[in-house]
Structures are given as C-alpha cells and as structure tokens.
Write the structure tokens for this entry.
Amino acid sequence: MKYHILLLVMVFFATGCSEEDDLQPSYSDVEWFVLQDNLDDAVQHAAYGVYSTWGIPVFCNDTIGSQERGLDHNGNPIVYYKVLDLNYNLNNPTNAFSINAKHISLIRDEADKLAGIKFVDEVLLPNVPEIFYIQSIFLLDSIYEQQYVGGAKSMKAVHQAMETLAVADIPVIANMSQAEKIERANEIITYLAIKYLAKNPSSEIETFKKVSYDPATQRSYYGMNVRTPNYPGESCLAPARWEVYGFLDYSRDNYPYVTDPDITKWRYRIVKEDEDIEDYIMAVVSYSKAEFEGMYAEYPMVLEKFLIMRGVMESIGFELK
C-alpha cells in the first residue's frame, strides 16, 4: 500500500513539473519613486537634490517612468507607463466625468520648474512635520475641477492623491516675494493638517468649537447671522466684529463685503466649523504666540481658541514659532 502511495506522489510531481508554465517577470520590483541624478538635465538634477535631502521625489510630469513588458502578437514591444493619477482613490474611484475628477496643466517653462523645486526645498518641506507622509510632490501650472465640458472651472491650489501631493500655481509662486511664498507654504501645510485631523480626530477640536457658544441660548455661533433682527424674537447675534464671537473671519456667501463704518449696521454670517478650523490652523502655523496675542489682545474668545488649536498642532508634531 505504501509503495502505491509513493508511486502516485512521484507521478504527480513528475507530471506537474513537466507541464509547468515558464516563469514570467512580475514587474513589481520597479522603484518608480526613487530618483536618479542627471547632470545634463537641470530640472532632474535639482529634483535629485531635494530627494537626497528629504527623501521625497519631485516631479514636473505626470508620466514618471516606463517599462517594456514583453512583446505583443506582432512582435512589437509592450510598454507600460507609470502615471501619477490625481483621481485615483483606493476607497472611492472617480471617473473622468465626475465633478470630483481633477484636471491638470503642466508647467512649460524650465525656469518655473526650477523655481518650484526651490520653493519645495527651501520653503515648504522644512516646515512639514514628519507625521504627514508625502510619497512624492507633483508641481503643476494648474489643477481644476469641472462639472461638465465647457462649464466653470473650480481651481485648486493643492490636492493630495494616493501617490502624490500636487501643488499648483508654480509659475505664480516663482514670481512671489519671500513673504508670499511663506504664506503659500503655510496654506499647503494647513491643507495637510486638515486632511490629517479628518483621519485622526482630536478631542480638543470639540473643545475648540465649544468656545464660540452662547450658554444663554445654548446655541453655537457657527452659521448664525449677525445683524439687527428683522422682526421681534428673530434668532441672530447683535452687530459686532466677528472677533467678538471668537472668529478670525466671516462668511462671504451671503454678504461678500462688510464696509459700513457704523458697526451697528453690519450684516454678515458667521463661518462654518470647517472654515473656522482652517482659519485657526493657518493662524497657528503663521504667527508666534506673542505675535498673535498682540494682534488680538482685545478678543478673549479668539485668544482661547488660538491656544487650543496651537496645542492640537503641537500634539501632532508641529514645531511652532
């Protein structure tokens, strides 16, 4: 019996080995995000300098590499192109006609590309906490969304995709002053912080939002109208500067301009929660504690919210002024 079992096993392996297909390459070992230096290409050489310092590749083209993958039935090479796709999302793929689909324009001028790489190297990356994982940076002329062909374009300054952080307006950034470049870098960092907090909620954000709250009416100030009531008993806040209620700005949706010198005639709407959080993150990464306290000494709610948000940013790795 044992002899017959052994014989069957030997026949199985002999048959399996004789019919096994030839091994094929997996093509999975290509390191698309490892940059090589090229002294004959000024842009590639500059990008390699950033990669050597920060370990983050910078690209100015969405096609970042190619690879031959055998031959087709006519004997022609099959070439695979690795493309940075801003619309690829592992959990929620979009199509080319989706309102969420991103469209891009590449940078044409070499001087602008070099200026963009310098901006990333000297202004942006030195202030990005390590906790914000960036696989690559894609520099662009523009990024926009369009609901339909010929429709209005919604321009984007920055977009984080699965494999890259796309930064737009590089030709504009190239001609900015140093102060303007720092402000743009802070806007990008604020965007990354918002994305991070959306995935990693902090309990202190709830504490932050509760500062702008009216205990008498038990209502949050978010989204409320600030004006003289149109009728007795209308729920709105008394005319005053938005800082009085703990905000750094107001919503432009209904009242784009608030210019009347008589504050008692002001009409505007308080921002939404996400807008308020963005405003304060931007303030925290832009100003030192002393600078901010000097600017808003008369507004205790503003100072309280600034300190709370400052604590949130420090807890996720920011080295603040």
